[in-house]
């Protein structure tokens, strides 16, 4: 177990560009809104984006907490750790696999998490070094797979699911992102990336679709601006979808462990 953390959930995708980091940050904020103590670990060493999405200013560094230990930063009520807090984010991380895996392990084990119910790990895309390190070194309680409905993305999402199954990590569900585009001028909605993909993959792997998210300008703008939708528009339909997904994740985690997170839901 990782000290100070009850449950670990990996948020993953087979390929990049499907909105995985945006889903991770909103899912984490939704879980916090449901009353859980939540953290985010940005495991994308080459392209960390959680610092910007959480509105953490450039150059803000974590505080030391004893030798080789550091405190996570706090943003919007959740604890966060990212490579972006350690380095100049304008400089590329030109590192080979073992260095990347080592950096990830340091972020994970040297961060002093403070009594978290759930730590969400924003995984880099693919099925490489970081994913293997996570599977081998960390007791992950479940994975959430993010995909878009298009066939190419689903092909890669399948690989992500297969990878977690190989290492005995339960897949808690699939999030179908960008599933419907609604025209801001006329209100016409259209599934421009195809439809039904999330259901097909959930049926194939005996898991569930946690939720569907629209392809909407606001979701992107709010995340880019450091105030993700769950914080920026707490009463919106998108936020309601994220909170429903957070509840489903929490329920499945509670089913796995007898005590479950010690939280009661309130309306």
From TrEMBL:
GO MF annotation list: 4 iron, 4 sulfur cluster binding; ATP binding; ATP hydrolysis activity; ATP-dependent FeS chaperone activity; metal ion binding
Secretion signal span: none
Gene3D superfamilies assigned: P-loop containing nucleotide triphosphate hydrolases
A GO-annotated cellular component: cytosol
Positions of ATP binding: 14-21
CDD domains: Mrp_NBP35 (cd02037)
Keyword set includes Iron: yes
Function: Binds and transfers iron-sulfur (Fe-S) clusters to target apoproteins. Can hydrolyze ATP.
UniProt cross-references to Pfam families, sorted A to Z: ParA
Protein name: Iron-sulfur cluster carrier protein
InterPro entries in alphabetical order: Mrp/NBP35_ATP-bd, NUBPL-like, P-loop_NTPase, YlxH/NBP35
Organism: Billgrantia gudaonensis
Keyword list, A-Z: ATP-binding, Hydrolase, Iron, Iron-sulfur, Metal-binding, Nucleotide-binding
Complexes and interactors: Homodimer.
Recorded family membership: Belongs to the Mrp/NBP35 ATP-binding proteins family.
GO biological process: iron-sulfur cluster assembly
């Amino acid at each position: 177990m990782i000290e100070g953390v009850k449950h670990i959930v990996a948020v993953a995708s087979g390929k990049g560009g499907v909105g995985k980091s945006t889903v991770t940050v909103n899912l984490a904020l939704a879980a916090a809104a449901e009353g859980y103590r939540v953290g985010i670990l940005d495991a994308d060493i080459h392209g960390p984006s959680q610092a910007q999405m959480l509105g953490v200013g450039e150059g803000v560094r974590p505080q030391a907490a004893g030798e080789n230990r550091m405190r996570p930063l706090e943003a919007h009520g959740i604890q966060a750790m990212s490579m972006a807090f350690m380095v100049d984010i304008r400089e590329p991380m030109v590192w080979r696999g073992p260095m990347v895996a080592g950096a990830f392990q340091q972020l994970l084990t040297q961060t002093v998490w403070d009594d978290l119910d759930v730590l969400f790990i924003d995984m880099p895309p693919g099925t490489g070094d970081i994913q293997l390190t996570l599977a081998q070194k960390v007791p992950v309680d479940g994975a959430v797979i993010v995909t878009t409905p298009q066939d190419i993305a689903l092909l890669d999402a399948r690989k992500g699911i297969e990878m977690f199954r190989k290492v005995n990590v339960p897949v808690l569900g699939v999030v179908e992102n960008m599933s419907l585009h609604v025209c801001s001028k006329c209100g016409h909605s259209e599934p421009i990336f195809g439809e039904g993909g999330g259901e097909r993959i959930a049926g194939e792997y005996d898991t569930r679709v946690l939720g569907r998210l629209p392809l909407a300008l606001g979701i992107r703008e709010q995340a880019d601006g450091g105030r993700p939708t769950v914080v920026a528009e707490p009463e919106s339909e998108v936020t309601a979808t994220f909170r429903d997904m957070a509840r489903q994740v929490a329920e499945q985690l509670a089913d796995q462990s007898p005590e479950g997170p010690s939280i009661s839901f309130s309306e």
